[in-house]
Specification:
There is one protein chain. The protein is α/β, with parallel strands linked by helices and about 200 residues long. About 45% of the residues lie in helices and about 15% in strands. It has 8 helices and 7 strands, in the order βααβαβββαβαβααα. It has helices at about 15-20, 30-40, 55-70, 100-115, 130-150, 160, 165-175, 180-195, and strands at about 10-15, 45-50, 75-80, 90, 95, 120, 155. The strands form 2 sheets. The protein has a 5-stranded parallel β-sheet, sandwiched between helices. α2 (about 30-40) packs across α8, α3 (about 55-70) packs parallel to α4 and α4 runs parallel beside α5 (about 130-150). The longest helix is centred in the C-terminal third of the chain and has 20 residues, at about 130-150.
Length: about 200
């Protein structure tokens, strides 16, 4: 059910997939969700706080100040986190962020965020490289378990998108990582149908 009353504000915090890199419409999945909510009468302001190449370490360092500046106390304060792909990528023959640190960063982020905001998390998407996707899958399972302990609704997306007709195909034909219009349409649809999403 859509909630049409009140000042609704959402910060989407994450990496390039949150930012919508590769989308010719410059909306990404976050912009599509916001657009749909507004079309259904929700008084919504959304802020896309996705930054390319950001890891959980980067997000831990910036999210609190960025959200506080955009979510005043007199509105419905909502935050959606989504990251993990960059943690599981290699740089100079080493993971950019070790799994233990990724989990510690997530625990700090979610534990802090839930004391002030309504919080959801969307897991990391797959990559065309199977080995990278397997690392993503392992981290996703750990993220999901931690989110469950912290009572944060969590949507795992990597497996469904790995089997999607468009996501990996578009990524392979662009920069080897990011989908195009159809891929972001698909991801937005997944979140829209998810029972955890606020504006269904």
């Amino acid at each position: 059910m859509l909630h049409t009353l009140g000042d609704q504000r959402i910060c989407f915090v994450g990496d390039s997939f949150v930012q919508g890199t590769g989308d010719p419409l410059c909306l990404g999945w976050a912009g599509r969700l916001a657009q749909r909510a507004v079309e259904h009468g929700v008084n919504l302001t959304h802020y896309n706080l996705g930054i390319r190449r950001d890891t959980s370490r980067d997000i831990l360092a910036r999210w609190r100040q960025e959200c506080a500046a955009r979510l005043p106390s007199d509105c419905a304060q909502r935050v959606v986190f989504s990251f993990g792909v960059n943690d599981t990528s290699y740089d100079h023959n080493a993971l950019r962020v070790a799994p233990g640190e990724s989990l510690a960063n997530l625990q700090t982020i979610l534990s802090t965020a839930t004391t002030r905001y309504h919080v959801l998390m969307v897991g990391p998407p797959p990559m065309p490289d199977p080995a990278h996707t397997e690392r993503i899958a392992r981290l996703d399972r750990q993220f999901a378990d931690l989110a469950d302990v912290l009572s944060v609704p969590y949507l795992s997306i990597w497996e469904a998108l790995r089997n999607d007709a468009y996501w990996l195909q578009e990524a392979q034909h662009s920069d080897g990582a990011h989908p195009g219009r159809h891929g972001y349409d698909t991801l937005a649809d997944m979140v829209q149908r998810w029972e955890g999403w606020w504006f269904r």
